[in-house]
Amino acid sequence: MNDISLVISDVDGTLVTPDKRLTDTSVRAVRLLRERGIDFTVNSSRPPMGIRMLIEPLSLSLPIGTFNGGAIVGPRLEVIERHFVPESAARRSLDALASFKIDIWLFTTDDWLVCNPRGDYVPRERHAIQAEPSIVADFDRYLGRASKVVGSSTDSARLAECEAILRKELHGQASVARSQPYYLDITAPDLDKGTFVDALLNQLGVSRNAIAVLGDMDNDLAMFSKAGLSIAMGNASIDVKRQASYVTASNAEDGFALAIERYILNEARELHEPARDRAFHSRR
Predict the structure, then answer these.
(1) Where exactly does CATH 3.30.1240.10 map onto the chain?
(2) Whose CA is closest to 225, among 201, 241, 244?
(3) In this predicted model, what pLDDT tens digit does every residue of 4-44 receive, in sequence order?
(4) 87-187 domain in CATH 3.30.1240.10?
(5) Where do you find CATH 3.40.50.1000 in the chain?
(6) What is d(CA 3, CA 146) in angstroms, rounded to the nearest whole number?
(7) What is the pLDDT of residues 88-109, one digit of tens each?
(8) 3-state SS string over 8-56?
(9) Rounded to an integer, what distance in angstroms lies between the CA atom of residue 207 and that of residue 209?
(10) pTM given for the model
(11) Domain 6-82+192-282: assigned CATH number
């Protein structure tokens, strides 16, 4: 077991439950980390406003990754670094998503913009980030400051087809990644969750072997490759699980807290002991 001094976690699908709750068990796990002198922060596809509700209960004090690494904010949500989707790439994204009849959102650093407030996933996003969208007629005037373009759809196959096209057409111009099975994110080029890990490494002087990361989606693999220890959630895809050091329980089963206890703190507590025995599987 490596000596871990920094833990970085994805949020949706990992740190919070499927209904977007931060459990008392997860809060307690982060507190245990700090009692052992281990730092903690989050690295998310969410906009900065979508992190606000996590800061106080988790006592976040380090920089926070948002927009899949496209922006870094401090614990008061002050912007440390931000990058935009090039306007030409943002416009091409809108055209491609529209051609597939996929609902489109646009995020700036401060705003969530939608043209269709009745979109299938608008209520879910509203609940997740605890913010209301601004309804606009079109996105034209915002394309020069787009931090993230999102396509949301209940049709996973259609979203995957659009993703393949945009990955090819926007190669080198924007980052294209799935943050949830139903969300396709287009963010600033050459930035991802792994570049956020690199930024923290440089700031804190921590070695890669001293970092542990947790995630569940393909966009989390960029930080898996930067860490000495990577943990996939039980709800992750087979491919993500195969690329992780360990697999924990799902985010519906306190998998985050269980992973912290077993693989970071390396101790057995009384938290869901039977579930731990069933749910954890070593990948090495």
Answers:
(1) 87-187
(2) 244
(3) 999 999 999 999 999 999 999 999 999 999 999 999 999 99
(4) yes
(5) 6-82+192-282
(6) 39
(7) 999 999 999 999 999 999 999 9
(8) EECHHHHHCCCCCCCCHHHHHHHHHHHHCCCEEEEECCCCHHHHHHHHH
(9) 5
(10) 0.91
(11) 3.40.50.1000
